[in-house]
Amino acid sequence: MNTIVVGLGERSYPIWIGERLLANIGSALEDVDFPNKVAVITNPTVGDLYCEQVVEALVVSGRKVNVIQIPDGEEYKTIETLESIYDVLIERHFDRYCGILALGGGVIGDMAGFAAATFLRGIPFVQIPTTLLAQVDSSVGGKTGVNHPQGKNLIGAFYQPKHVHIDAMVLETLPKREYVSGLAEVIKYGIIHDSEFFAWLEDHREVLADRSTEALTYAVMRSCQIKANVVENDEKEQGVRVLLNLGHTFGHAVETLAGYGVIKHGEAVAIGMVMAARISAELKLCSAEDVARIVDLLDFFGLPVVPLDFTVSEYLTVMQRDKKVKDGVLRVVLNHGIGSAELHQVKDLDKYLAELLEQPIH
Hints:
Helix content: 40-55%
Strand order of the largest sheet: 1-2-9-6-5-3-4
Order of helices and strands: EEHEHEHEHEHEEEHHHHHHHHEEH
Low-confidence stretches: none
Number of helices: 14
Radius of gyration: 20 Å
Strand content: 15-25%
CATH topology of the largest domain: Dehydroquinate synthase-like, alpha domain
Mean pLDDT: 94
């Protein structure tokens, strides 16, 4: 087992990463003095695979366990589903000395975390991410929330977990499309922060495609360490943390326009990262070779690299609701080569988008 600590003073917490860790969840909760009465929030898909094992480990550790199942899918990441969680917590007499465990992917983690942040003005929670995307991204850093019909993650709060419990073995049951979607976020870390990690991903693409446990564990560890370092320096996204949103401004627009659940988050981010890289190349912030490497690596794993067929006006309308908009001005994260990125206000963004939407990717 490997441990990474997200250092946030009184809100610091450990990330455990290893194989066959689900059985150790009880001792992990003991280490962070977690409450005895807990609600495990999951969905039917993950619940059928792992809920019994987690519940058994919790009961053995002396905890009283309630299981709350919510529907599976991004389209259910709504205020209405959140209210159904509150209903069960109230019916089962949860108080401020109880806790929540999120057992699932990013949708479960975001919603369970937001429920924890807002129920009785805040109760503790733990992340047990079961998708690659959740393990390397959404489970770390304290972003919680739900979607709004007009935009993704517009309703939410920064609320840190007490512990993140990452078991690499659960990825064996992950559908290929979900697994590949998570790799987009792994690749993102190399683009924005670590050129050597990006090169490592290029060199290990074959074993990552085959889900080598050793390669996956390293990729998850490196991704979590990069994110932990960023969050420690900018917990609430006022500075450097915004760079983690490479590809997300355009990607969230893709998700919204396509309809929640039609395009996976990682697939949309892959499209967004390619658009960002192409704009970067137009602005001479990166080379055509950099763009080609990014496209090649994403394409190798079967991730989409071509924008969906919507108009510039449709894209810009949704992008203007992005959380990086400041005083009405849209700002986007652009890569500087590979291994670095910055937030930019792009003059004539509509012109660049129009040109790139019409041009095939070379």
